[in-house]
Amino acid sequence: MEIRSTTEKDLDLFVDTVHTAFGLVRNAPDEDGGGVLWAAYEMDRGVLAVAPDGRPIGTAGTYSFELTLPGQVVVPAPGVTAVGVLPTHRRQGVLTGMMRKQLTGLRERGEFLSVLLASEATIYGRFGYGPATYTGRLTVQRHRGSFHTPRSPRAAADRPSGSVDVLRRAECGALLEQVYDRYRRTQPGALSRPTHWWARGAGQPPVSRAPRYVAVHRDAAGVPDGYASYALADGTLTVDEIITGDDAVFTALAQFALGHDLVTQVVFKHVPPDHPLRWQLADFRAGEATGTTDWLWVRLLDVPRALTSRGWFADGELVLDVEDPFLGEHGRYLLSVRDGEAECVPTDAEADLSLDIRDLGAVYLGGTLPSTLVRAGHVAAHSPDAATRADALFRAERAPHCLHWF
């Protein structure tokens, strides 16, 4: 078996192979080559596994994204995608070989982390990825969707003064791109959506060209500061995403959705587990949370660089003993944080926590508590207060959330 890098000449071969691996039918692109999932593939960043007889048997690709870390730090983040092995060649080391080739290549490019969405939760932990953000659905019956009047005087005073317009997706692509880009730079765990994704309609709504209505919120000056992409069918209004960095604007867009005529229920597809929307409903039980799941998985490739790149919100020190079984590496690091800045250096000091690289990826964005992994038996705490100190140190300014699909 040979595992090689791909070029633009491999596009059709790559696309056909990954479709076969997943049992999918390849749809025809639009006249401009867009409107399909692979329209944004970067063939200079892919790998192809080839059998001795020359047949392609596996694929793995990478997108060029940016990831927002705690502290509103924006860093390059390769997004792993299109990972598949033909059914005839599974459990023969093809995936392992591709993952090793890919991670080695990312390091050679100078990357210090990578991210992915896992089709199955049991696959990528062995390659060093850990679940770092979570999302879920919230379904609200419209007749139970009235909102409480805020009890806090400040919350009532902070209600946005603005307006909501309804547009069609086809007429507001540039606006969506601008609002999303402002949002993702302030939200830990959010990924960029490169311009060519929007232009080529690659991905899921509202990035794709699928028909959608878009409720656009504008502030008092008329500047767009949020949107909700939605579709209505058989009495269910499904909100693909609400994008805004302002909780009050989110509330206004949610109220718009719940006030829509000819609707029996509203499904909000991407809601963070800790979102206040349920608490804002007059009937707390009106919001049915379902489908809570992992979303963005993180893999650290350079531990000191990763830990000194994000922002921090508590002072302290931890000695982390980190095992990386897949790459055959081990390191012990002293993490010292003062005034939001971190130093991370090798040390021989006694460890506070012993953990796998996948566990460090899981806690990196602040979405998974180190103490949870200690209680689960994955992370070893070597002093009574180690887990508590780690929880305080790794927290983010807000829960990380990613809703971009790739």
Automatic annotation (TrEMBL):
Residues forming the catalytic site: Y124 (proton donor), F406 (proton acceptor)
The organism's place on the tree of life at top rank: Bacteria
Keywords: Acyltransferase, Transferase
Binding of acetyl-CoA, residues: V83, G84, V85, R91, Q92, G93, V94, L95, T96, S119, E120
Domain N-acetyltransferase residue range list: 1-156
A Pfam family this chain is assigned to: Acetyltransf_17
PANTHER family (UniProt xref): N-ACETYLTRANSFERASE EIS
Subunit field text: Homohexamer; trimer of dimers.
Similarity remark: Belongs to the acetyltransferase Eis family.
Entries under NCBIfam families matching the protein: PRK01346.1-4
Protein name in the entry: GNAT family N-acetyltransferase
Protein's organism: Streptacidiphilus monticola
Lineage: Bacteria, Bacillati, Actinomycetota, Actinomycetes, Kitasatosporales
